[in-house]
Design a protein that fits this description.
Elements lengths: L3 E3 L6 H12 L4 E3 L6 E5 L3 H11 L9 E2 L3 H7 E2 L3 H10 L4 E7 L5 H4 L4 E5 L4 H10 L3 E2 L14 H8 L5 E4 L10 E6 L2 E6 L5 H8 L27 E4 L5 H9 L5 E5 L11 E4 L6 H17 L4 E5 L3 H6 L4
Parallel strand pairs: 1-9, 2-9, 4-7, 6-10, 12-15, 13-14, 13-15
Antiparallel strand pairs: 2-3, 3-8, 4-8, 5-6, 6-7, 10-11
The structure holds threonylcarbamoyladenylate and magnesium ion.
Magnesium ion (MG) binds next to loops.
């Protein structure tokens, strides 16, 4: 079979079954999910999961989540699931939501970095979900980027880093959401958000009545909280949405000959800079989230003296648009 499979406009089920064969044989695959691209392997095979760590250059202290296709598969890898955990899964699965549960012995220690919990996510992206279904095993799948780098939301941005390290590549076009899943761990009956993502704290509070935003502090439950993430080569400045945002951006731009700006559609004409990258309309949070990682990579590739980014109003972004 071809190593590169184009499923941008249509899923090819018989090809996907062959990819599932690769997963079952301890191979490693680059594929799209609705959040970001993943690099996946049989989550029940130590040998297969080792390949993911190697390909990403990931620390073995950083556990990997499992993509699952149904509740039965979740119950095969996790135990002592509480009523609230079932409720959260019922509301947010399939979708951009990961929940940390107590692990069963069947999950190899390499997946959980030796810990007694395992993160599970049921993706809504059709290619990812079907791939898990056809494989019949949970797929261990971190984001498909070199460790420490930005998540990949289209194949073009990541293929160079992985094409010689994986057995198969599925192109599903641009990621629909473009941000990672929200990671939640229920502690003493209250959901703690370990990593913010496409499902917001407001949405989780609506379901659970309470929520703790652990990601605002050093996060004892997230093993990767003291590791570097989202690194780019060039300096980056975020200008908040307070009054005078455009003037502030312009004041920074005046100091540099070679700056890149990432801004909303409404303001794109207000800046004088060689590289102006448009996130989408200010009110279109779907577009902003879908575009941001791609634009950061694009800005970084232009090797500017500084990348200036217009912030988005936090209050609005926390209401959520997905789920
Ligand atoms: O949207 C997503 O979640 C994407 C797509 C590909 O599914 N995946 C993703 O995986 O973002 P990754 O590995 O890049 O980020 C997962 C995070 C890591 O920070 C890891 O430390 C944390 O989940 N994690 C994994 N297992 C955990 C566990 N048992 N307890 C706490 N945190 C865990
Ligand atoms: Mg990641």
């Amino acid at each position: 079979m071809e190593k590169y499979l184009d499923m941008k406009s249509k899923i090819n089920l018989s090809e996907l079954q062959k990819v599932a064969g690769i997963i079952k044989n301890d191979g490693i695959v680059l594929f799209p999910t609705e959040t970001v691209y993943g690099i996946g392997a049989n989550g029940l095979s130590k040998k297969a999961v080792e390949k993911i760590y190697k390909a990403k250059g990931r620390s073995i202290k950083n556990p990997i989540n499992l993509l699952v296709s149904d509740i039965k598969m979740i119950e095969s890898v996790a135990k002592d699931i509480t009523e609230l955990e079932y409720k959260l899964m019922d509301v947010f699965f399939p979708g951009p939501f990961t929940i940390i549960l107590k692990k069963k012995d069947i999950v190899p220690n390499i997946v959980t970095a030796g810990g007694d919990t395992v993160g599970v996510r049921m993706p809504s992206g059709e290619i990812a979900l079907k791939l898990v279904q056809e494989s019949g095993v949970p797929i261990a799948a971190p984001s498909a980027n070199l460790s420490g780098s930005l998540s990949g939301t289209n194949l073009n941005d990541i293929i160079g880093d992985f094409e010689n390290k994986v057995d198969c590549i599925i192109d599903g076009g641009d990621s629909k959401i473009g941000l990672e899943s929200t990671i939640v761990k229920v502690v003493d009956g209250v959901p703690h958000i370990l990593r913010p993502g496409a499902i917001t704290d407001v949405q989780i509070k609506d379901v659970a009545g309470d929520v703790v935003l652990d990601y605002l502090n050093k996060n004892e439950f997230l093993p990767s909280s003291d590791m570097a993430h989202y690194n780019i080569k060039n300096r980056c400045v975020l200008v908040k949405t307070d009054k005078g945002q455009v003037d502030k951006v312009n004041a920074i731009l005046e100091q540099y000959d070679n700056a890149a700006v990432i801004c909303c559609n409404e303001n794109a004409c207000k800046y004088n800079s060689k590289v102006i990258l448009n996130m989408g309309a200010k009110d279109n949070l779907e577009a902003v989230s879908r575009n941001i990682f791609r634009l950061l990579r694009e800005a970084d590739r232009s090797n500017p003296d500084v990348i200036v980014i217009e912030g988005i109003e936090e209050k609005r972004s926390r209401q959520g648009y997905y789920g």
